[in-house]
Specification:
alpha+beta, four-stranded antiparallel sheet, 5 helices, 6 strands, 28% helix
Length: 216
């Protein structure tokens, strides 16, 4: 039994290392920390967060128009396989040739965590960002994203020293130009929310006209 347990633990540890660098040191201590966090991780990352009754704008940005051309289209392929907590990575359907120009042609500014809108992972081209709770529901429903395993209410995990917002999601890597345009609009929605514009009733309507997809 001890040999079986040791073999299983070794396999899981190597799977953790295979995810590459991220928010946790690639050490036995880092693996132990992630193993403990797994005990409190979300059981279903496809369940959207609740929308607080005190929120002035309960609709989010991605569904603010009654016209169907302004709705985020359904992602045309199945969800990829996602693994890990910190790091969290996309294991399948990661077209690493889709966004090479993003890292090479656009200068990085405000790269510290305190002023971050989103960040992309060079290894798989997925992104992490924070959305309005209604936009979290929209991106999940349409197949573009899932919640981070630690995306709980801020006071739930206070003992971690660094809270993960309830609207923190992984957006899947785009597979072609049309998907890339949709992902960039999701990034725009994240900027709208994180900047504070989403707290009120304003905001610019996101136009997905011409992208095709399921507009129901």
């Amino acid at each position: 039994m001890s040999l079986l347990t040791r073999g299983t633990g070794t396999r899981y540890y190597h799977a953790f290392l295979a995810l590459g660098p991220g928010g946790t040191p690639s050490t036995p201590t880092g693996y132990l920390r992630i193993s403990l966090l797994r005990l409190i991780a979300l059981r279903n990352p496809l369940t959207p967060p609740l929308i607080p009754s005190t929120l002035h704008n309960p609709q989010g940005l991605l569904r603010t128009s009654s016209s169907t051309t302004h709705f985020l289209p359904t992602r045309p392929i199945p969800r990829p396989l996602i693994s890990g907590i910190a790091p969290q990575r996309q294991l399948t359907h990661n077209n690493t040739n889709t966004m090479p120009w993003l890292s090479s042609s656009i200068p990085s500014t405000n790269t510290s965590n305190g002023s971050e809108i989103c960040h992309a992972h060079p290894s798989d081209r997925s992104l992490h960002l924070t959305l309005h709770p209604a936009d979290v529901a929209t991106t999940i429903e349409r197949g573009w994203a899932q919640r981070h395993p630690l995306a709980r209410d801020n006071d739930t995990l206070w003992w971690l020293g660094r809270c993960v917002p309830a609207g923190f999601v992984m957006v899947y890597a785009p597979g072609d130009g049309h998907e890339l345009r949709c992902v960039l609009e999701i990034v725009r929605a994240a900027a709208w929310w994180v900047s504070g514009d989403g707290m009120g009733g304003g905001g610019t309507v996101v136009d997905f006209g011409g992208l095709g997809g399921d507009n129901t």
